[in-house]
Amino acid sequence: MTVTQQGSAEELLLAQLPFARLLGVRLVKAVRDEVRAELDWSPERCTVFSVLHGGALMGIADTVGGVLAYLNLPAGAQTSTVESKTNFLRAVRAGAVTAVARPMHVGAQFIVVQTDLLDDTGALVAQTTQTQAVLLTRR
Q1: pLDDT at residue 90 tops 50
Q2: Measured between alpha carbons, how far is 34 from 64 in angstroms, rounded to an integer?
């Protein structure tokens, strides 16, 4: 990302995430201590009975978790998800999901992120805990 590019920080980050764009994720906030994104319910993202697919929920959770980890990396480092666990608590059949990621631990080797997934009423529909490796560039 260069300073000559136009757009918000969220737009510039999302431009680097082709799968998140394909999924329909919208980044709405991206700072070191919190990343927020939204994903609309749509029939194309559903499983049986018009329920938003768990893979769509995991996709948005992985996106915000990865962005949060990226924002907490030391200069020149990269990150990769090494573990992700999601608890699904209720179905989403309409509206949108908001994903809110916050750091649980930012260390030299790993960053652990907790992401709450909320429906339009603010009810918790899923929660993801994710571990991101801190990958230092070798010289």
Answers
A1: yes
A2: 9
Per-residue pLDDT, averaged over 97-110, amounts to: 98
Residue whose token pair is 């230092």: 136
Q: What is the pLDDT of residues 112-122, one digit of tens each?
A: 999 999 999 99
Chain-centroid distance of CA 4 in Å reads 26
d(CA 66, CA 138) in angstroms, rounded, equals: 21
Chain center to CA of 18: 13
Q: What is the mean pLDDT of residues 42-68?
A: 97
Determine contact, residues 17/63, Cβ cutoff 8 Å: yes
pTM of the model: 0.92
In angstroms, the CA 8 to CA 4 distance is: 12
Distance CA 117, CA 24 (A): 15
In whole angstroms, what is the distance from residue 18 CA to residue 104 CA?
26
What integer pLDDT is reported at residue 4 of this predicted model? Answer: 42
On the CB side of 35, how many CA atoms lie within 13 Å of its CA? Answer: 29
- Find the angle CA(8)-CA(9)-CA(15) to the nearest 5 degrees: 90
